[in-house]
Design brief:
The structure is a homodimer.
Chain A (H helix, E strand, L loop, with lengths): L6 E9 L16 H13 L6 E2 L8 E11 L8 H6 L6 E9 L11 E9 L13 E2 L6 H11 L1 E4 L14 E12 L2 E8 L6 H13 L7 H8 L14 E7 L5
């Protein structure tokens, strides 16, 4: 009996999430996972299941999503992006494929993630940013928002910034970076952590918007954090401003 | 008899041109002009004709298109953007309205225009730039492209860079600026002139792409210019990389 060796393939994927109901496969709505699995099953001529690093929500984008799948198909690894991109729509692009160790799992091997949240802060919306940034027409005090960020950086119990329904053992996470840049109309919030709870970035952004608009003081964000109660935090910011930038698999990359 | 005074209103408009068959009204295809005229006719309760500064082609975008129209409607000028934006799709946004002198005409009063052409230079396309930048997967020699630009700056007869079918008295134009910046995957060509012939920016970009890819030498662009013959120039670059940035109405703005 011949043993067919199975390869473990890591993909790096970018997508405009506007037309997708998130990463995760579901009935009656198109997902990124489904589009990729159907493309890969056609290419590999066997049923393929892929595992994504971040299960992005409906409307959330990714420029550096990572996923892996196992296959016995013999297609050269460097041809995989071309093969996938030739059958997927233009809003979803695989830009890298690598053969990795059998133990690699896009989600469980991840050591950290980087997200960006964009706010288009101008009186009128931009047709170019309409799907990629939250339009916020009122003045935002960016320096107050930066002060609020300082309370969130570090290792904390982020229960107040976790959406209901998430099932994880611990709500302690280490936020390594929470930085705001402001260039012309665009306010960009970069968030990096060893992991994020469900909707954590969008709830943090909701609180930062409340600080920027003067509804909250910067140190109110610390009070919210210490309360460990989602009920007192700000509303979740809309999904379309959020993009998954990068998934880290070592402490240094 | 009471004389109803007619105001002349200048609009500044941004649009994602992907879904439009250009600026100019035409039968059987949606145009920016038609969408704006229908919105304004509803708002002003009289038939409105608008005049655009640049008649952008199908797929071309604008962040600073200018148009004007005359109306007897009494709507306060600062309410006009809100009124238009409330009835137009999200890919078209009016961000300024001003009352101007009766003699102002968006096209004939223009003293200059600035366009940007974007090239996404990477092996794989970007889902985010797919409608706003030309995907060019091969290496481009940007310094050679910059050398070629030098031959085009200044006052020249641009007959070689004019699409057939354009009816203008003279093909002499003054290119004030032709600059290339390169940041990560994005190559950005800024072109400013007192006016552009039909398809002139896209034909210039076509020549610059031929220089960047090594098909032409930088000084071949001078030969093309001096030949005053569209037949020998490079192909026209695709429309979706082009955006009208700004229209100038004085020599100094």
């Amino acid at each position: 009996m011949r043993v067919i060796s199975e390869r473990n393939i890591k993909l790096t994927i970018a997508y405009d999430g506007t037309a997708y109901h998130g990463w995760q496969r579901q009935t009656n709505a198109i997902s990124v996972q489904e589009v990729l699995e159907e493309a890969l099953s056609r290419i590999c001529k066997e049923p393929i299941t892929i595992y994504g690093a971040g299960r992005t929500d409906s409307g959330v984008h990714a420029s550096g999503q990572v996923a892996n799948f196992k296959t016995t198909a013999r297609i050269p690894v460097d041809r995989i992006p071309y093969a996938i991109n030739s059958v997927t729509p233009r809003d979803l692009v695989v830009h890298k494929a690598e053969e990795v160790d059998q133990s690699f799992h896009a989600r469980y091997s991840a050591k950290g993630k980087v997200y960006v949240y964009r706010i288009y802060n101008a009186e009128f919306p931009s047709p170019f940013w309409r799907n990629f940034a939250l339009h916020y027409p009122l003045h935002l005090d960016v320096s107050a928002m930066r002060k609020a960020c300082e309370y969130l950086i570090g290792t904390h119990d982020f229960s107040s910034f976790r959406a209901a329904g998430s099932e994880v053992k611990t709500s302690v996470r280490t936020v390594k970076r929470l930085e705001i840049t402001h260039k012309e109309e665009l306010i960009t919030i970069i968030a990096e952590a060893d992991g994020f709870l469900y909707n954590m970035v969008r709830i943090i952004v909701g609180a930062l918007l409340d600080v920027g608009s003067g509804k909250l003081q910067p140190d109110d964000v610390q009070k919210i954090l210490l309360a460990k109660d989602r009920g007192i935090a700000s509303p979740t910011a809309p999904s379309h401003g959020l993009t998954l930038l990068k998934v880290h698999y070592s402490e240094v990359d």
